[in-house]
Amino acid sequence: IDDSEEEAEARPAQNATATKTSSQSSPAPPPGLPSDAKLIDPNNIPPEISADPALMAQLREQGIGGDGGDMCGGGGGPAKIQMTPKGSEQGRHTFEFQGQPVYEWDQTLDECNIWIKPPPGVMAAHLDIEITHTHVRVGIKGNPPFLNEDTGGAVVVKESFWTMDGDEVNINFQKMKKGEMWMSALAGHGELDPLTKEDDKKRLMLERFSDENPGFDFSNADFNGQIPEARNFMGGVKYN
């Protein structure tokens, strides 16, 4: 048997090995990333990302993309986007610390809401909550505050409030700037990932359409291309 025949016999085994390797499941995300962290393959970028210049610009600002469209991070592999954890109800987001949920939040054109589950046995009378123009403090009387942070945007203090229903505390911030997009409920508590941000932008924009066009159903409406900012679109949001 000459050398060429030996090489030909070796090729099927090599191909079989390659096929077996490629069919294996993707490795688990590295420590520090959530289990649902998604990979962006530079050779197969999802169309909802590649078609949106704003999203691509945001990813490049985070050091993920390059001028040539390379979506690899500094390590040379596909870039990982940490997705904003979802809350217990549709539209809610979860802020986590060291893998543990701290609170859930969502936003509309007019307000931002936070939901907190206090320790068992805590009642409304035990709580110490103060809302100011740009800050909130949450805690149990006689103890250091559980939260003591700036808000994600300016707040109308006299219209904001908090309530306790069952085992959940709801803090309602009335936005000073109607339609403003808050990237987080509280400053320094992360920001919405690019895809979740676009979902929130769409929801706020459709809410504005419904607000300004009563009687019309926009629940199944969609956008072609970049979603506009609800606050600034077509001359700005209208106040009732």
Q: What report would you give on this structure?
A:
- By secondary structure, the protein is an alpha+beta fold.
- It contains 4 helices and 10 strands.
- It has a 5-stranded antiparallel sheet with strand order 3-4-5-10-9, with no helix packed on it. It has a 3-stranded antiparallel sheet with strand order 6-7-8, with no helix packed on it.
- It is globular and about 55 Å long.
- The model is unreliable at 12-24 and 66-75 (pLDDT under 50).
What proportion strand? 15-25%
Mean pLDDT over the full residue set: 79
Major beta sheet, strand line-up: 3-4-5-10-9
**Gyration radius, in Å:** 24 Å
Strand-helix topology:
Layout lengths: L2 H20 L15 E3 L6 H4 L2 H9 L17 E3 L11 E5 L2 E8 L3 E6 L10 E5 L3 E6 L6 E4 L10 E5 L2 E7 L19 H19 L28
Antiparallel strand pairs: 1-2, 3-4, 4-5, 5-10, 6-7, 7-8, 9-10
Task: List key phrases describing it.
alpha+beta, five-stranded antiparallel sheet, 4 helices
Describe the structure concisely for a colleague.
With 240 residues, the chain is of the alpha+beta class.
